[in-house]
């Protein structure tokens, strides 16, 4: 069955070779990081989580967003999602693997990862995050592989598979809730110290994940000669729209709480992000770019859904995907360290090795998605032949 994932046009095979080249470059750069240490990154004593953890946080949300296909199909019997739900499961598998790789890159020496297993610490949220992510990866890997096999055999789904799918619904919510607790449980970081961190994480995930699915489905249509039901795009667009509106609403609540209460420690980080603080303003363009992309994406998406404009859906999905990526990655993670609990301001810049390693992990995720999607769609084409 896996061989179907490598059957495609010359362009598809060149795409796989291109991804492999990026991965090999990243592996060489990672070896350089292992020899020189994390000093080659932009991280410092004051900013101990950087671009790696930013990407980890974002892709945990992408993994959790698979539930937005599972709930309509299995709980509300929305049959239009039937042909695409397995693609959402494969996206979740790729996103969890990417999340784990980002954590390993951030740890410096990879053997430190074993400390979580050899010396379990139930009082640490990182321990629970590792457990829920590992469980979620196994769940989605089993569900995706078995569902893909059913496409080939044309057999009905067994009850145990449906039970695992039902289990994946609360598990998806759990993985991003626990990830949010990594931040909201730290009393010295006022940007993160909020009770709505977990709901905000879920809202942004339910916007970014389906937005990415829209882009991937359109890419498959352009390269794989396979057409998805237009109602799938319309429904995904509505999910993205509602998720993004709730996400922005939560963001505005943070602004109200910080500035109406007039507590300096709650205001300083938001002031730094959007207006600069004490002559430091490196994150200001990113913060405003995320806000403008998000608001523009909502406007374009609402108009596109009303007019059933497919090109507008793709454009708005692109806007919202990058808005949430900037917000949940750079702004949330790095901005949370500025200023430090001692009131000092240390800014952060992504280094070239950091960027290359990150690009390599993205390439691994895209390679998994490309092969899995190609395998699934090739099997679907065979099953639809008379």
What does this structure look like?
The protein has 386 residues and is mainly alpha-helical. It has one domain (2-381): Formate dehydrogenase/DMSO reductase fold (Up-down Bundle), CATH 1.20.1630. Helix content is 74%, strand content 0%. Helix 7 (159-184) packs across helix 8 (197-224). The longest helix has 33 residues, at 352-384. The two termini are 20 Å apart.
Can you describe this structure in just a few lines?
The protein is 74% helix and 0% strand. It has 386 residues and is mostly helical. Helix 1 (10-36) runs antiparallel to helix 13 (352-384) and helix 3 (67-75) packs antiparallel against helix 7.
Question: What is the topology?
Answer:
Layout: H1 10-36, H2 51-64, H3 67-75, H4 85-106, H5 114-118, H6 125-153, H7 159-184, H8 197-224, H9 230-261, H10 264-275, H11 284-307, H12 310-335, H13 352-384
Q: How would you name the oligomeric state of the polypeptide chains in this document?
A: single chain
Number of structurally distinct domains = 1
Report helical residue fraction. Answer: over 70%
Instruction: Please state the overall shape, judged from the principal axes of the Cα atoms.
Output: globular
Secondary-structure element order, as H and E?
HHHHHHHHHHHHH
Strand content: under 5%
Distance between the ends: 20 Å
CATH architect. name:
Up-down Bundle
Sheet with the most strands? none
Mean pLDDT: 86
What is the C-level CATH assignment?
Answer: Mainly Alpha
């Amino acid at each position: 069955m896996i061989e179907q994932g490598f059957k495609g046009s010359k362009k598809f095979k060149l795409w796989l070779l291109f991804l492999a080249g990026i991965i090999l470059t990243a592996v060489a750069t990672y070896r350089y990081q292992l020899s020189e240490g994390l000093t080659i990154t932009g991280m410092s004593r004051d900013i101990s989580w950087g671009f790696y953890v930013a990407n980890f946080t974002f892709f945990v949300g992408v993994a959790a967003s698979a539930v937005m296909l599972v709930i309509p199909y299995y709980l509300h019997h929305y049959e239009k999602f039937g042909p695409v739900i397995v693609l959402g499961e494969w996206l979740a598998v790729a996103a969890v693997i990417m999340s784990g790789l980002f954590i390993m890159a951030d740890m410096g020496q990879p053997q430190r990862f074993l400390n979580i297993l050899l010396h379990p610490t139930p009082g640490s949220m990182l321990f629970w995050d590792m457990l829920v992510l590992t469980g979620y990866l196994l769940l989605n890997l089993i569900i995706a592989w078995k569902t893909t096999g059913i496409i080939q055999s044309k057999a009905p789904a067994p009850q145990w598979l449906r039970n695992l799918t039902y289990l994946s619904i609360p598990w998806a919510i759990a993985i991003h809730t626990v990830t949010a607790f990594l931040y909201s449980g730290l009393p010295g970081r006022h940007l993160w110290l909020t009770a709505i961190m977990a709901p905000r994480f879920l809202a942004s995930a339910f916007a970014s994940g389906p937005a990415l699915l829209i882009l991937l489905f359109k890419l498959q249509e352009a390269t794989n000669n396979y057409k998805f039901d237009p109602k799938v795009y319309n429904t995904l667009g509505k999910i993205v729209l509602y998720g993004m509106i709730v996400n922005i609403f939560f963001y505005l609540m943070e602004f109200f709480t910080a500035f109406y209460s007039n507590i300096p420690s709650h205001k300083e980080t938001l002031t730094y992000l959007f207006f600069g603080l004490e002559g430091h303003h490196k994150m200001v363009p990113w913060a405003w770019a995320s806000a403008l992309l998000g608001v523009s994406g909502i406007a374009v998406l609402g108009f596109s859904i009303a007019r059933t404009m497919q090109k507008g859906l793709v454009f708005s999905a692109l806007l919202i995907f990058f808005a949430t990526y900037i917000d949940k990655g750079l702004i949330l993670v790095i901005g949370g360290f500025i200023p430090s609990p001692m009131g000092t301001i240390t800014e952060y810049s992504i280094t070239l090795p950091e960027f290359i390693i990150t690009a390599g992990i993205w390439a691994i995720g895209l390679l998994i998605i490309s092969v899995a999607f190609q395998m699934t769609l090739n099997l679907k084409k065979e099953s639809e032949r008379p």
